[in-house]
User: Fold this.
Amino acid sequence: MTAERPPWDPAQALSGARYSAVELSAEGDRVFVLDQRELPAREMYVTLESATEVAAAIKAMVVRGAPAIGITAAYGLAVAAHTLSSESPTSYLAAMRAAGNLLATARPTAVNLAWAVSRMLKLVERHATLSGKERAAEVAELARTIHREDVAACRAMGKAGADRIPDGATILTHCNAGALATGGYGTALGVIRAAAEQGKKIRVLADETRPYLQGARLTAWELHEDNIHVEVITDGMAAFFLRRGEVNAIVVGADRIVRSGDVANKIGTYGLACLAKHHGVPFYVAAPWSTVDLATPYGDAIPIEERSRDEVARIGGALLLPEGVPARHPAFDVTPASLVTAIFTERGEHDPAYLASVT
Assistant:
């Protein structure tokens, strides 16, 4: 089911904004997501009523962004717990584990997804013997807690990053790492929002972010909604503006940050980091601590999702490639820690080389 108005009470939205990437119904039986494939042309909301529907929405990028899909998966498990409230503990556990596996494997690169599912399932295992109503209530409350924590984390990392942004700066960003990609406020866009809230006069260059155009469709939409000056550039223009000295900082989000400080983010990020290094421009990464994967030693060990040819070959209904010509679409690339100036999380600012020592 789709709707043009948010299906939740705006006063109850955990995002703290007029819009939310995802919210859970008051009853805990439905997940509401803003269909990001429709933006900026239409603001459409989709209602999901099972873990299977939630997993399909994550895979199809109805909802996207590492923190947002982690929250969405948590809400998917809350819906599953509600549906399974009449099941015995044994049946409940088996079904919840299956739902968790389905959700955790919907997209492989973003570590927040597996992190959120694992955190939810630990509660499920502990509380399986409670009554069905109690189980559903506790699972829903933990999912909402994960959402609240993410918004708070975004605001904290935004403040840490904004302190590094000079007044009058032009910031280049890539993909969408805003409220749409998180529980609310944003990671990279959280830094930008916090700088604006400090009264700094800033402007933003948003890479369009081929092939899925998250920068053009989503980042520009968010910043325009907030009256923050934004201009969209094609990905191939970034070097031009850096060489002219028009960029003072690059700020991006992340889908996974590993023990070495290497960062996986939307394809095209690594190239920007190389350009930043060459031109002496600081390259910052903002992400919640749930994105940090200390169990993975180096960036080369991060699984890189390969998506379909059609996302490269088509924009909307328009065919860009000749029929029969293949296309490659690695959705992410990995930026070595040596190219990252600093990482901002809710725990503060970090030197990528010493990330593993952060407590």
Q: What stands out?
A: DSSP finds ten helices and 17 strands in the chain.
